[in-house]
Each structure stands twice: as structure tokens, then as C-alpha cells.
Write a structure and sequence with these properties.
single chain; 189 residues; mainly beta; four-stranded antiparallel β-sheet; 8% helix; 52% strand
């Protein structure tokens, strides 16, 4: 009987103790790392051969995360919902988002650099009119639209203060235009 009570007492003690290892206590003399405000400039530049066709800058003020996680903490959506006629007899339209979407996060590193996580998506609206050759693009109010899109997901780059870095170059297969995405980070004082 004593053996059963002892086993039951040990079992009860075991259940009442927290499982896992003890957490280390923070050193009171160590202050947590502060977040650092930075400004990200993301520029999408479109080229037709050597000729610059468009330059679209997006400026985002964001606080860096000193905890060691580069999560997406800021996002920007710029655009319009466009009605696109559906195929079928009912003549209904579907709405499509056209514009720019940017998701980003910044982590401050021990050596003074910053790791930037970036998702970038840009779509535009082009129309092809009746009788036009396939691949001939014009901006007109007639015809069914093309919605070319450039999308870059989970770009992870490390930059220093005031450094600019070209993070993506891509070619549009429809018209041969070259897109370049450049990222610049500036620490805000």
C-alpha cells in the first residue's frame, strides 16, 4: 500500500511540474535592441531596348525588426479594379485588380547591414483591337484586354545604409520590354 501511495505521489508531482527546459533570464544590464526606422525605395523601370519607357518609384517608411525575423510587416497596394467581359451568353464582367502590390519586411543585422524581404507584383492593362495582328498592343477602349504581370516573390537581399541594388531583371515575352527592380535602403535619423 505504501508503495502504491509513493508511486501515486511521484506521479502527481511529475504532472504538476512544468515540462521543458527552463528559459534563460535576460541579463538586466542588456537592453533590447531598438528597431531602426528605414526608408525603402523600390523602383520598377521599364525599357524598350535602350529607351526608358517608364519609371515607377515606391517609397516605404518601415521599422526594422531587431529580433531576428524578417517577416512581412508592411504592404502597399496601388491600383484599380477593372471590369473584364466574361466569355459566355450572360455578358457578365469579372473585376480584375490592376496595379502594384508590395509586401516587405526589414531585419537589422549585427554588422550594421539590413536584410530585406520583398514581394513585388505589377500588372498593367493593354488592349488588342479587332483586326490587329497578334502581339500588336495598343491602349484603346476596344477589344479584350491583356493584363501583363511581373511578379517577384520572397526576394531576400542584404544591403547597407544608402546602398542601391538591382534585385530583379525580367523580360516581357509579349513585347520584349525589359523590367528592372532596384531597391535602395536609407536609415532615417
Amino acid at each position: 500500500m505504501k508503495k502504491t501511495i509513493t508511486i501515486f505521489a511521484v506521479f502527481a508531482l511529475f504532472l504538476s511540474c512544468p515540462l521543458g527546459r527552463a528559459q534563460e533570464k535576460a541579463n538586466p544590464s542588456e537592453k533590447p535592441k531598438p528597431s531602426i526606422p528605414v526608408k525603402l525605395l523600390v523602383v520598377l523601370t521599364e525599357y524598350d531596348g535602350e529607351k526608358k519607357v517608364a519609371s515607377l518609384p515606391y517609397s516605404i517608411l518601415i521599422n526594422s525588426d531587431p529580433s531576428g525575423h524578417t517577416a512581412y510587416s508592411s504592404f502597399t497596394r496601388v491600383g484599380v479594379r477593372v471590369p473584364v467581359a466574361s466569355a459566355g451568353k450572360d455578358g457578365q464582367s469579372t473585376f480584375v485588380d490592376v496595379g502594384s502590390n508590395i509586401d516587405c519586411g526589414v531585419q537589422s543585422e549585427e554588422d550594421g547591414r539590413f536584410t530585406v524581404r520583398l514581394n513585388f507584383e505589377r500588372s498593367s492593362l493593354y488592349f488588342q483591337g479587332r483586326g490587329d495582328e497578334k502581339g500588336t498592343i495598343k491602349t484603346a477602349e476596344t477589344g479584350q484586354p491583356y493584363i501583363p504581370t511581373i511578379r517577384a516573390q520572397s526576394l531576400l537581399v542584404t544591403v547597407k545604409d544608402s546602398q542601391s541594388l538591382e534585385v530583379l531583371t525580367a523580360t516581357d515575352p509579349l513585347n520584349g520590354h525589359v523590367f528592372r527592380i532596384t531597391l535602395t535602403l536609407n536609415v532615417q535619423k
